[in-house]
Amino acid sequence: MLEIKAEKRIEKGKSFSRRLRINNKFPGVLYGVNKNIMLLTLDHNIIFNLQKKIEFYKENLFLLVENHKYIVKVQAVQRHPFKLKLLHIDFLYI
C-alpha cells in the first residue's frame, strides 16, 4: 500500500487555500459515514507524483496524520483546467 503524509489544518476558505498553493501545498479532506471530517494539508509534488500510479486510485492507501494511520481511498481529485496542478483531494475512510 502507498503511504501519504498529511497535516491537520484548522483554517479553511478561498484565501487560505490560495496561500497553501503558493507554498506548494494544497488542501484536502478526509470523511466517511458516521466519522468526523478532518481537514488536511498535503504536499503537492509528492501527491502529484503518486497520482500517476494506478494503485493510487484503485487500492487502499495509508494516510499518516499526526502519528495516526488511517486506511483510506481516493474519492475525488480536483485539477487545474490547464496547468499540471492539483487543487483539492477528497479521501474516504475505509
From TrEMBL:
InterPro entries recorded: Rbsml_bL25/Gln-tRNA_synth_N, Ribosomal_bL25/Gln-tRNA_synth, Ribosomal_bL25_short, Ribosomal_L25_dom, Ribosomal_uL5_bac-type
GO CC annotation, single: cytosolic large ribosomal subunit
Annotated ranges, domain Large ribosomal subunit protein bL25 L25: 4-91
GO BP terms: translation
Domain of life: Bacteria
A GO molecular function held by the record: structural constituent of ribosome
Keywords: Ribonucleoprotein, Ribosomal protein, RNA-binding, rRNA-binding
Function: This is one of the proteins that binds to the 5S RNA in the ribosome where it forms part of the central protuberance.
Family assignment from sequence similarity: Belongs to the bacterial ribosomal protein bL25 family.
Subunit structure comment from the entry: Part of the 50S ribosomal subunit; part of the 5S rRNA/L5/L18/L25 subcomplex. Contacts the 5S rRNA. Binds to the 5S rRNA independently of L5 and L18.
HAMAP family, alphabetized: Ribosomal_bL25 (MF_01336)
Name of the protein in question: Large ribosomal subunit protein bL25
Native species: Buchnera aphidicola
Gene that specifies this protein: rplY
